[in-house]
Amino acid sequence: MQVNTVKDIVELNNLSESAPLVEVRVDRLPLGLWRNALRVASRAVSLGGQIKVLGFKKDGFGFDCKLLKRWQIMKFIALNGIFANFTFEEEANSILLKKDKSVVPPDQLISIAYVCSSNVKEAQILKTKLETLNADADRLNANIEMLVFFSEKTSITESFRAIHRTTVYYADVMEGRRINILRKKKEAFDEAHGGVLVVAHTRITMPVDQLIRLARKDFDAAAPKVVYKEKGGPTRPYLDALLLDGFSCWSTKKKTLVCSSMALPYQYYLGNRVLSVDGGVIILRRDRIKINPFELGSAWGEAEDVDVSNYLDLSGYVVEYLSEIEFESTTNKLDFSDRGIRVVLDRVRLTAAILRDFWLKWRGSTVWPI
């Protein structure tokens, strides 16, 4: 199978260790998606099969505005731990990766980490959610553990210790007026025991049957599909994966957000965009990720979720959108009244961004981002 387009990546994503040969043409793909293509190919190719990487410049340092260079591909292969399951060979104009070991993870413990304030009302809502999770885990024989991270010790936070499978932690997140919420998430990554870690805010509800499906999915980091169910009304897509022009949070002259999964399906993640996970919930494979992605100083409201996605990206991990895994947000902070207008505007903005990318590439501009 040849991977030349976004559509090819989507089709390849439906395969699981069944393709004997996958050819990835990095020169024909939007540059922002070549790593997604290699990562998807790693789980699609059969045991003993090969990934053949074509369409790159072999020599030279620095960057090129039109073609990837060999060192960029080799850097990704070296950093992303999944390729330790492959044997590497280099030919004149290609890189061959032969699959020696399966990348399908075994069934294992799933860690669910909630970060919560010590507010009584919020804690009571979370306690009800955990009790339901616990009962459903018993009913479905799910292998889960639950971790809860509070800011202050109170009688209601201590009552969580009575919930089966639950461990309670405390972390002071206040730094003056800043709320360093990543301090709780960092501790969650360190303290969890499961191969899969779901880190969520109190508003997120996660059905146990969806968690069970995560146990044997191969990925690095991901956003699930998140929906909001209006009382007596429709179920609407909610904040989950965000498509950005770039990870930099310092810019004041460009509009960073291009679109979100609320407006566009995964197939439309075209061009040289980057995928960021909304801070409400992120899923990580702790057994694959060798860094703690939360060891940053960003506080709540300072685009800390974008910084986490950036850190993962820089470390060689691919952030994906798992549209087949559905969680629910029990609170809504968006105005859905203009959803139709927002969808149209997002499509127009994305189309403009793609046309700009093609223009820059055709012109040979050195500002074409890798």
What is this structure's SSE topology?
Blueprint: E1 2-3, H1 6-12, E2 19-25, H2 34-44, E3 45-54, H3 70-79, E4 86-90, E5 94-99, E6 110-115, H4 120-140, E7 144-150, H5 155-158, E8 166-170, E9 174-175, E10 178-179, H6 182-191, E11 196-201, E12 204-205, H7 208-214, E13 221-229, E14 235-237, E15 241-244, E16 257-260, E17 274-277, E18 281-285, H8 304-314, E19 319-329, H9 339-363
Parallel strand pairs: 1-2, 2-3, 6-7, 6-11, 7-8, 13-19
Antiparallel strand pairs: 3-5, 4-5, 9-10, 11-18, 12-19, 13-14, 13-18, 15-16, 15-17
Walk me through what this model shows:
The protein is an alpha/beta fold and 370 residues long. The chain has helices at 6-12, 34-44, 70-79, 120-140, 155-158, 182-191, 208-214, 304-314, 339-363; strands at 2-3, 19-25, 45-54, 86-90, 94-99, 110-115, 144-150, 166-170, 174-175, 178-179, 196-201, 204-205, 221-229, 235-237, 241-244, 257-260, 274-277, 281-285, 319-329. The protein has two domains: 2-99, Rossmann fold (3-Layer(aba) Sandwich); 110-340, Spore Coat Polysaccharide Biosynthesis Protein SpsA, Chain A, CATH 3.90.550.10. It has nine helices and 19 strands.
Radius of gyration: 21 Å
**Total count of strands:** 19
Largest sheet, strands/sense/barrel: 9 strands, mixed
Question: Span from first to last CA?
Answer: 25 Å
CATH architecture of the largest domain: Alpha-Beta Complex
Give the full name of the CATH homologous superfamily of the largest domain: Spore Coat Polysaccharide Biosynthesis Protein SpsA, Chain A
Secondary-structure element order, N to C: EHEHEHEEEHEHEEEHEEHEEEEEEHEH
Strand content of the residues, in percent? 25-35%
As a percent range, the share of helical residues equals 25-40%
User: Given the C-alpha coordinates, what overall shape results?
Assistant: globular
Overall pLDDT confidence: 85
The CATH class designation of the largest domain is: Alpha Beta
